[in-house]
Design goal:
With about 160 residues, the chain is of the alpha+beta class. It contains five helices and five strands, in the order E-E-H-E-E-E-H-H-H-H.
Amino acid sequence: MDRSGMNVRVMCRVNGANVTIEAHPMMRLLDALRSKLRLTGTKEGCGEGECGACAVLVDGDLVNSCLFPLLHAEGTAITTIEGVAAGGRLHAVQEAFLACGGAQCGICTPGMVLAAITLLERNPNPTEAEVKAGLAGNLCRCTGYMRIFEAVVSACRR
């Protein structure tokens, strides 16, 4: 805790780098990523854990960062959309989203991409029903979902 007794220092790994974030312990992980670390790829859609726009990976699990207190991030490994591409090369899911037109306004895209990556890591060849179930926690108001589903299926082939 700092001198005021309000802030804590949370140490974790974000996109492979060790970081220390000093903030109120109940600050949302979403706010810490965006305001403290300037990782603005993670979006806020609803602020209630319903839309998936704020999804990140915490120790490999997909979580809604708008519901995740910063204090719970202590000692974890966090991956945001900025940490998905490697060596200047997009992830196969990101490439598929571009090729299939799965991204329009971009608000849901980071969460959709992370949800799709999580799904494909657990099930490299999902059925259409499994793709729909795997992305069920993410809402999109632009695409009608078909291009997103096509992107996930396309990424399976890569």
